[in-house]
Amino acid sequence: MKTQSLFQASAAALFAIALLFPLHGQSQSVDASTLCNDVTPANRAMAKSAGYDVDALCSGLAAQPQRAATPQSAAIPDRREMAQEKVADQIAPTAVVGVTATPPAKALKPFGYDLFAGSPNTFAPVTNVPVSPNYLLGPGDMLEVMFYGKTNSAFGLEINRDGTVNFPDLGPVGLAGLTFQEAKDMLQTRINAQMIGVQASISMGELRSMQIFVLGEAYKPGAYTVSSLSTITHALVVSGGVSDIASLRNIQLKRAGKTIASLDLYDLLMRGDTKNDIRLQPADVIFIPTVGDLVSVNGQVLRPAIYELKGSESVSDLIALAGGLGPKAYPNNASIERIEGGGFLTVLDLDLTKASDLQLLLKSGDGLSVSAIKDRMESTVSLAGHVYYPGNFSWKEDMRLSDLISGLQQFPPGLDLDYAILSRQDPVTGQLSALLVTPGAVIAEPGSDADLALKPRDQVMLFGQDKARDEQLKPLLVQLRSQRSFDNASKVVAINGPVKFPGEYPLIDGMNIKQLIKAAGGLTESAYMGSVEITREDLSDSTLAKTEIIRMVLSDQLRETAEIFTLQANDLVALKVRPEYRERKRVTLAGEVVFPGDYVISRGETLLQVINRAGGFTEYADINAAFFTRTQLRDNQVERLAELKQKMELDLAAKQLDGSSEDADARASALKKDALAKLSNAQAIGRLIIPLKAIMAQREDDIVLDDGDRLLVPQVSQDVTVIGEVQRPTSHLFRQDSRLRDYIELSGGLKDTGDKRAIYLVKSSGEVVIPRSRLFKFKSVAEQVEPGDTIVVPIDSDGPIKVMPLMAEVSRMIYELALGAAAINSFSSP
C-alpha cells in the first residue's frame, strides 16, 4: 500500500508538472486542453495529495491568450539556372566575354551568386533560438511566467499594442522598448515587493513577427513578414535571394528614410564577418542596387571568377579576392585585357613579382590572366626501361652515367649490358640525338670513356635481354623521324634477318654493323657469317634518287681489327640465314611400335626410315589399321569444316524463309539442327590414308615426312562398328560367317532416314569401299567385312523425311571425323 501511494503521488506530480511547462504552438495547446478534459476524479485526488490543484492549473491554461497561427510566406519558386550565364554574357567585362561572346567566357562565373542559386520553398519565422538579454521587446512578443512557492500557476503574457501587459496581481506593466533583461529585472523586483512568498520564472515565448520591405534587385521584391530576430541576410533568404544583376557589395538597410547600414556580402563569403549583418526592425527597407564595376581573373588563381569592385582596388586586391595565386602560377607572366577609349581592346603585361605592377589600379571590364608554369622539367635527368625505379632525378654539375647506374642491384634480372640509349636535346636547335651507352662498362669502370657526362634533360633508356624493344623505342623513333627535312634524313636505321629483335633503331654517330647487331639483341644461331647486304638510299643527286646495294663479309665486320663500315641514315642491314639451316622437325610414333615417342627428322627422311629407327612394330600391331595424320591436312580440313558449316546455315535459313513443306516436318528440322550442332563441335583430324603394309614391303612409294606428322599403330582389333542411321550405333564382335546385313540387323536395322543404297564400308586402314552389286553384297575380297572395319549408313536425302541434299555430305564428314577421333582416343599416349 505504501508503494502504491508513492506511485500515485509521483504520477500526479508528473501530470501537474507537465501542465506547468509553457506550451508553444497550437498543436501543443490542443494536446494540453485534451489532457485537462480527460482528468478523472481519481487523478484530481492524486494531484491534490501531491500539492497541486488541477482545476486551478487548467483554468490558468484556459486563460492564456491564444496566438493566431503566423501566416507563412508564399512559396518561392526554385531559382532557374540562368543568372550565371546572363551575368557572364551581358554585364561581365568585355575582356571576359569577348567581343563576340566566345565560349571561354562561360567558364567564368560571377562570384557569390550561387549562395542564392537554390531558394527555399517556404519560410518559417525563427522561434526556437535562444533570445539574447539585449533583445528589445515590442508589441506581439509573449512572455511565459511560472509562479511557484505560495502560489503555483503558469500563464503566457502578450505585450499589447500599447506596449503593456496585464500582469496578474500587478496590473498593467509597460514593457515595450525595454530589453529582455531589463524587463525581467523590473518584473522580479515588483513580484518580490508585491507578492510575498511567491517566486517567478520568466522566459520568452513566441516572438513577434514584423513586416519589412526588400526592394531593388531582389529575386522577388516586395513586403515580407519575418521574425523579430531576423537580420539582413535572413531577409535576403526570405525574398529568394538577389537577381542576376544585383550588387553583392552594397546592400543597404534604410530606416525612416535614412541609410543606417551597408552590407558587403564579400565580407561574409570570404571572411565570415557578420559585423554589418544587423538585426531588423519593423518597416525596415533593404535596398539592393544594381551591380557595380566588374572585373575578371582567370588562370592560375585559386578561385577564378568575375568579381565586383567597390572602387580603387588594385591588382593585388583582385588576387586576394581570388584566393591568391595557385601553386603552379608563373607570376612573372601575367596580363590584363583592358578596354581602350577608342572601343578596342589592349593588353597590359604584368610581372606580379614587382610591387609597382601589383599596385596597378583596376578599371571596369579588366580581365586579369595569370599564366601557369610550363609542363617541362629543368635540371633533371631521367632513367627508364628495364629498371626497378624509373623516373626523374635531379641533375648536378659534373654528373655522369655512373651516378644513375651504380650497380646491378638497381635492375631486374636480364639487363642488356651491351646496349642502352641516351637521348639528348640540343639546347640551341632543339634537335634530338641518340648516344650509345654500354651499361656493363659503366658499372665495371666508373669514370671511364663509357661513363658519359650527363646534361640537363638527358634520358637514359635501358633494355632487357629477352623483351621486344619496338614499343619501348617507338616514341624516340617518332621524334627522330619528325626531324627529317630535305637535306637531313631521319636518323633511323633498320636490320632484319637472324637477330633477336629485328626492326628499326636510332642511328648513333659513327654507328657500325656490330653496334647495330648489339642493339637488336645479338645474332641467333642461324645467322650466316658470310655475305651481308646494306641497302642505302643515294640522294646526292637532287634530280634522281638511287638505291645502292653494298655487300661485305659479316665475320670481317665483327672482328675488332676490321675496317669499320659506318652506317648512314635510313640504311637497311639484311642478314642471311646459313644454308640448309632448318628448325628442328619432329614426328610422333605411338601405339604398337617397339620404341614409341617423338623423333627428330632430317630433311628428306621417310616414314620407313623412322620406323626402322623406332625398332619396327610389336607382334600385336595391326599394320592395316595404322592411322597417319599431317598438320597441313588438318588445316585444310578446318577450312572445309568452316565452308560446310556456312553452307549448312545458309541452306537452313533459306528453307525456313521460303516456308517449304520440308521444314514443316518437325523431325526433318530436328535432324538438320542436330547435324549443324555436330558439325560445329567436330574437330579436324587431318588423316592421310596410307598403304603402310605395302610401304613396308616396298611395293608402294615411301612417304617423305614433315614436321608434326603422327603415326598411330593400334593393336589387332576384334570388333566391327556400325554407325549412322541405324537404331543403335555400336560395335560388335567380329564373326567369321557374318555379312554386312547381319551386323546392321544386330544394330537394330535401318532407321527411316537411312539410305540403304548408299551404305559403304570403311576399312581399318581408312579406305572406303562402296559395294558394286545389289544391296548388302560385296564381290571382291576387299569388300568383305573384316575385324576393325566400320559400316556406315548415311542419311537419305530423298527418303520419307525430306532433308536438304547437303545433309548427305555433312553427315559423311561427321562420320569420318568421328572415326578418326575414336582412333586417336584409343591410344593412351599421343
Give me some keywords for this one:
wza like fold; single chain; signal; cell outer membrane; 27% helix; Outer membrane lipoprotein wza fold like; alpha+beta; SLBB_dom; transport; 830 residues; transmembrane beta strand
What can you see in these coordinates?
- Among the domains are: 2-63, no CATH class; 142-204, wza like domain (wza like fold, 2-Layer Sandwich), CATH 3.30.1950; 634-825, Outer membrane lipoprotein wza fold like (Roll), CATH 3.10.560.
- Helix 20 (666-681) packs across helix 23 (806-825).
- 27% of the residues are buried.
- Helices cover 27% and strands 23% of the residues.
- The model is unreliable at 1-33, 61-75, 81-85, 89-103 and 120-124 (pLDDT under 50).
- The strands form 8 sheets. Strands 7-6-10-8-9 form a 5-stranded mixed beta sheet, with helices on one face.
- It has 830 residues and is of the alpha+beta class.
Q: What does the secondary structure layout of this molecule look like, with pairings?
A:
Blueprint: H1 2-20, H2 26-37, H3 41-49, H4 54-63, H5 83-91, H6 94-97, E1 142-149, E2 153-158, E3 164-167, E4 171-174, H7 180-194, E5 198-204, E6 209-216, E7 222-227, H8 232-238, E8 251-255, E9 258-263, H9 265-271, E10 285-288, E11 294-299, E12 305-308, H10 315-321, E13 329-339, E14 345-350, H11 355-358, E15 367-372, E16 380-385, E17 391-394, H12 401-404, E18 415-425, E19 432-437, H13 439-444, E20 459-464, H14 470-482, E21 492-496, E22 503-506, H15 513-519, E23 531-538, E24 546-553, H16 554-558, E25 572-574, E26 585-591, E27 597-601, H17 607-613, E28 627-629, H18 631-658, H19 661-664, H20 666-681, H21 692-696, E29 710-713, E30 719-724, E31 730-733, H22 740-746, E32 760-762, E33 768-769, E34 790-793, H23 806-825
Parallel strand pairs: 6-10, 11-15, 16-20, 21-25, 26-29, 30-34
Antiparallel strand pairs: 1-2, 1-5, 3-4, 6-7, 8-9, 8-10, 11-12, 13-14, 13-15, 16-17, 18-19, 18-20, 21-22, 23-24, 23-25, 26-27, 28-29, 30-31, 32-33, 32-34
Helix pairs in contact: 1-3, 18-20, 18-23, 20-23
